[in-house]
Target: Pectinesterase inhibitor 3-like
Amino acid sequence: MVISHPAGKYSAAPRLTSKSSAIELAARYAGAASLSASNASAALQLIPAQCLTGQVQDCFVLVDHSASQLGRAYEVLGRISSDPVDMHQLDDAATWASAALTDLTTCLQAVRSMGPCSSSREELVRSLAEASRHTSNALYFISRIKG
Model:
């Protein structure tokens, strides 16, 4: 599997030596995804009103919700002990990240269908795609913890 690093570089998935390294990587990706979703929210504010279709207007709420959910996942993952892993907290983080990924994907599709209405569109697409990749990576590492 090829994943994107929070710094933006692509590489093969890091070798997991322990549950604690998987938890740490899941938390890092959730944090990076939250930041990227916040950047997407800021980019969304720059889209001119005439470009805002109903689907894109929904993204104001969805992207903010995603950033919040990913922030919650980041906080929980940062507190989880690896011995033993609190599966309830891990399940909560997975649920929040999964919901965020759904919202981000919905908005990415809506913005791509918007067409070249604004010069801010490309930055928004980039931020949404990055947030989606980081969220997917966080979910990957969460799934490795669950075994």
Observations:
- The chain has one domain: 18-146.
